[in-house]
Design a protein that fits this description.
Layout: E1 2-3, H1 9-15, E2 28-29, H2 33-39, H3 41-54, H4 62-83, E3 89-95, E4 115-122, E5 133-140, H5 146-166, H6 186-199
Parallel strand pairs: 1-2
Antiparallel strand pairs: 3-4, 4-5
């Protein structure tokens, strides 16, 4: 798994359970750009390529920001899945607060709300299907309390992963890739749509 905003809390929570070696292979906390380049190089390269393709920084607008967060989460989930030789990959990236970059689109007139983009990548459903399955969701907490947000992000990632493994979460595959997940408004939804179409 690849964590950013949850700071390793998801990995720590899973490893605290007896028998964790049966299902946990490894993970990384890729927070700063340099760490991302070293720990999830495929994700780092994909984000730089997105900036080149769009001709703008990933913080240039709300659409660019959200497109890059979905790309970051999905690519990091796959990076760690492959690097660790795992069946499943999980990744999250967002903003815990208490302040937020203007590109996030978080309302400055309020205290703001922490959020994270969670991606889960899983194995093909059957032998006839070559492509991995992918799920992308947004968790928004409704507050800017950083420490609480980090725990809520870890819980959201664990919950989504559990539903995906159990088969109870509709997947975002080629047929349903326009499903935007749990997003707050149309602007965020459009960014998720665009990013998923580019990645899938």
């Amino acid at each position: 798994m690849s964590e950013c905003t949850s700071g390793g809390l998801l990995a720590a929570s899973l490893l605290s359970l007896p028998g964790a070696s049966a299902y946990f292979t490894g993970g990384a906390v890729a927070y700063a750009s340099g760490a991302r380049e070293a720990l999830v190089p495929g994700t780092h390269d994909a984000l730089r390529a997105l900036e080149r393709d769009r001709g703008s920084d990933n913080y240039a607008s709300t659409t660019r920001y959200w497109e890059s967060r979905v790309l970051w989460a999905t690519t990091a989930a796959r990076d760690l899945q492959l690097m660790c030789g795992a069946d499943w990959g999980i990744a999250e990236v967002g903003a815990a607060g208490p302040s937020f970059h203007p590109a996030t689109g978080v309302d400055k007139s309020s205290s703001g709300s922490g959020f994270t983009v969670v991606a889960v990548v899983g194995p093909p459903l059957d032998a006839q299907t070559e492509a991995d399955r992918v799920w992308v969701r947004v968790c928004e907490t409704g507050h800017n309390r950083r420490d609480e947000n980090m725990w809520q992000f870890a819980a959201a990632a664990a919950s989504l992963a559990a539903r995906c493994v159990e088969g109870s979460e509709p997947e975002d595959n080629a047929e349903t890739k326009d499903a935007a997940g749990d997003v707050r408004n149309d602007q965020w939804g459009e960014a998720l749509h665009a990013a998923k179409r580019a990645w899938l």
